[in-house]
Design goal:
single chain, four-stranded mixed beta sheet, binds NADPH dihydro-nicotinamide-adenine-dinucleotide phosphate, binds magnesium ion
Length: about 400
């Protein structure tokens, strides 16, 4: 996948975020292997300017600020600065790039991911919300253009790696591991009183705020069930979730003979990012290694759907498909935003999602236009949702039967 210079040329969407920063750490450590050709951010222009000073990409794109808001000499001369979503799409389809790392948070990541897939690029996909919202459309586009999508999400990277031990026809099921988040052992009653600070403190992973809250509600695992469904073309009953508090086994694949293949490494995103960058090869890198000279304990326990009803929504939406993914994802993005503004309680997050899902007009094979329209609709509904007037609590059966 490398250029004539021997270096893999990277377009990094979401360069200022947690995944973006880990990706840049890898490039900094291995300049003989990798080169950054373009970077994007939303509004953190000062951070993006620093990145451009160091990595000297050809292009930098900002989607959340305009040229007028920036001082004239903020970016190095050699970097061409562009603004807005159309510029982001053009950059994602950059003919010079060997790989596009899609690391924007939320369904805002769909624009760049879609443009890269449409251009037939190899895509290292961290932005799971793209597959949650539009999985079947993205995967069929990738098939048509020959775009290779390599998962960066650690669980899906683990499955992608474990699948190399057998043929797809020999796969029985995948087992996604979940850390269980900071409230794994909390009783149900206490979850109503979760503070923002508690929810932003993940026991194992250091990530952006949205995915950290998703991990605390276990909505992250719900989104990952849906992501796995489309990425690996699985049935919903071929996906299971097990809580593994140490986050060392990143996921497993069970083959038809009962053999289970797991991928293990310390909880650090640099390994799955680097694997996406070097695939199908492996290279030495800066990811931390497991030390089997010290005692390592691995525990596994079933998830508790009663305390974490968001996970049930993930299985339901993976089973129904259609417009459900787009609606669940958008409702959750707003619920997380409202929770972080102290406008919703922690346990209201899955309640809001349940309620908006139930209220939406379901279509089984939506177009991209419908997916985007329902994303906008679900955001509006979620913003005006009143926790006192809606009393849906547990996942209902109505959706399954429609
Ligand atoms: P962060 O919040 O740390 O970073 C988000 C990035 O996206 C920033 O560069 C941000 O720019 C940019 N961005 C935010 N909103 C927009 C927008 N509307 N349009 C364009 N760009 C935008 O997120 P993470 O790095 O934690 O997560 C990125 C993705 O990777 C998510 O989909 C997440 O689920 C997934 N992921 C993350 C993991 C992790 O360990 N962090 C693990 C597995 C998956 P700015 O700084 O200007 O706001
Ligand atoms: Mg993950």
């Amino acid at each position: 996948m490398a250029s004539k210079s021997g270096k893999t040329r990277i377009v990094l969407l979401g360069a200022t975020g947690s995944i973006g920063t880990s990706c840049l750490d890898i490039v900094r450590a291995c300049p003989e292997l990798f080169e950054i050709v373009a970077v994007t951010a939303h509004s953190s222009w000062q951070h993006l300017a620093k990145i451009c000073e160091e990595f000297r990409p050809q292009t930098a794109v900002l989607t959340g600020v305009t040229e007028k808001e920036l001082p004239g000499n903020a970016f190095p001369n050699k970097t061409q600065l562009a603004f807005g979503t159309d510029a982001l799409k053009i950059t994602s389809a950059n003919s010079e790039a060997d790989i596009v790392i899609s690391a924007i948070v939320g369904s805002a990541g769909l624009h760049g991911t879609w443009a890269a897939v449409e251009a037939g690029k190899t895509v290292g996909l961290a932005n799971k919300e793209t597959l949650v919202a539009a999985g079947p459309l993205v995967m069929s586009l990738a098939k048509a253009t020959g775009s290779q999508i390599i998962p960066v999400d650690s669980e899906h990277s683990a499955i992608f790696q474990a699948l190399e031990c057998g043929h797809c026809s020999e796969l029985a099921k995948v087992i996604l591991t979940a850390s269980g988040g900071p409230f794994r052992t909390w009783p149900k009653e206490q979850l109503q009183h979760v503070s923002i600070e508690d929810a932003l403190t993940h026991p194992n992973w250091n990530m952006g705020p949205k995915i950290t809250i998703d991990s605390a509600t276990m909505m992250n695992k719900a989104l990952e069930v849906i992501e796995a469904r489309w990425l690996f073309d699985l049935r919903e009953d071929q996906i299971s979730v097990v809580v593994h508090p140490q986050s060392i086994v990143h996921s497993m694949v069970e083959f038809v003979d009962g053999s289970v293949m797991a991928q293990l490494s310390p909880p650090d995103m640099k390994l799955p990012i680097q694997y996406a960058l070097t695939w199908p090869e492996r290279k030495p890198g800066i990811s931390p290694k497991l030390d089997f000279q010290s005692a390592i304990t691995l525990n596994f326990e079933p998830p508790d759907l009663e305390r974490f009803p968001a996970l049930g929504l993930g299985f339901e939406v993976a089973s129904r498909g259609g417009t459900c993914g787009s609606v669940l994802n958008a409702a959750n993005e707003i619920a997380v935003e409202q929770f972080l503004k102290s406008k919703l309680s922690f346990t209201d997050i899955p309640r809001l999602c349940r309620s908006i899902l139930d209220a939406h007009h379901y279509e089984s094979e939506p177009t991209l236009e419908t997916v985007v329209r329902l994303d906008t609709w679900a955001r509006q509904e979620a913003r005006s949702w009143n926790p006192l007037s809606s009393h849906h609590s547990a996942p209902s059966l109505t959706l399954r039967t429609c």
